[in-house]
Amino acid sequence: MTLEQLTVFGIIAIAMACFLWGKVRYDIIAVMALLAGVYGGVVPPDRAFQGFAHPAVITVAAVLIISRTLQNSGLVDYLVRFLSPTRRTTTLQVAAGSALGAFLSCFMNNVGALALMLPVTLRNALKARRSPSLVLMPLSFATLLGGMVTLIGTPPNIVISSFRQDLTGQPFAMFDFAPVGLVVCIGGVIYVSLIGWRFLPTRIAPKLTSALTQVESYTFETSLPEGSPLVGKRISQLEAECENEVTVMAIVRNGVRRQAPAAREKFRARDTLILEGDPVVINPLADGKKLSKLGTPEAAPAGFRTEAVQVVEAVVMPNSMLEGKSMRGVRLHARYGINLLALSRAGDRPIARLRNIKFRTGDVLLLQGEAEQMEVALESLGCMVLEKRGLQPLHGGTRAVLPAGIFAVAILAASSGMVSVPVAFVTACVAMILFACISINEIYDGVEWPVLVLLGAMIPIGQALDATGGTDLIASSIVENAGSMPVWAVLALLMTVSMWMSDMVPNATTAILMAPIGVRVAIGLDANPDAFLMAVAVGAAAPFLTPIGHQSNTLVMGPGGYHFTDYARMGLIMEILVVLLAVPAIMLTWPMGG
Prior knowledge:
4-stranded antiparallel beta sheet; 26 helices; single chain; 8 strands; elongated
């Protein structure tokens, strides 16, 4: 093994360990790996950033923009309305939701499809008095399955197609993945609908009530007596004195109730205050001098809502600006004019004080604020409303269908070979802008920049692994150890390794690293490289064992109340099923004769 190979293997090993550790954002890890490759002499400095111009990066960016446009168009709202009658039984709800989620993710980003389906699925479960734990993980798995069907369904397929173009000059076409992906998708949806959901524990009890009921026991009414040292002070000063563990929900002054008052609002004598917070923090203030005796306001949770003030449940989305930050660091009230009332993580309310909790993807937040500010604040924070879903149809049916029509034309142009996929989809993005289907600001907000940075930074590392002979070394070792194993067994092994890797690291990274290895193994066995690329594509797109393997799995963890090990309950059989279905489908579609 040469020094260059040792360097590449070391960089990849450390990067994968950091991905698994999860304390550093994956895009930052990718950039650090790229810089390590440059300084280690395995990535030429003049080619360090060529990955950002790679067709795979351009295609993923275009798909993300198109997905955002379809989300906003309101077209999908017409589809999800048909789900209401399916909530009669768990099997029916899971089957209908999973089928629609899989269909949507064939043509849009996995997380985008899940974001559309999640609030509807959650609402139907609550109305049917059914635990969200039984329906959300099947939905997440279904969106991953749907992504396997088309070229644009998931980033690994785009990476594999671009790799094939670099290798042979001809990429995989739009529906080349369908013969294998459809078989796996249909089999997987049948599994989660009939069997899979039965393995899931009821982490969140079936109920009609929401997290609003958690607030009642933490809400108190009090008043400011004459001479209180708090008179004349701002709300922000009181909250700071309580170490930001107390929120002023409302002020009643001269018989007028003011919901979610601004942080700069000053107290007056005889103001009645509605406070939310830990009783341990609030009680010391109720000494008769600062505050009067504490009481519980009548119908407290219901009283939080007016026409101007909303209380909403929202989930922290992947790549949210809240990730890794605390309430104090974000300054929700001062900067955005909204109050954090409660936080639920994996179905439980954390014991630690709210100000000390660092937000994670999948956390469910109970927020209160003015209706006009709430939508803008949630967009800036990267949170999605669960209690009320603001699907905003465009102006009438024609405007809702227009983005889908543009997208369909782009698919036809790309699949017929008129233009390449990146050109077709970038053209579709431009057309959507010209026809006012999406604004420029929404485009930049809709792109998951960390995904693009991950791809752009890791592509040169994958190229370095190939250029240094690392892929040949790994492939020759696999071929030698395979011995007399049949080709289908080696395919299954490669797929399984890719699957396990994607359970721990971003699936695009898995595709980048495993694609050249798959080709070298195929050459060593004198087999069809396309078959082995398909095996890597399926494996990289099937992270069903952990919540960290894909953003969709992470996103349902909080609303579903799942524990880390819950994913393996349903996911282990799913991964076995994927191998059993995909390997024969690959052998039939991509014969070993090449």
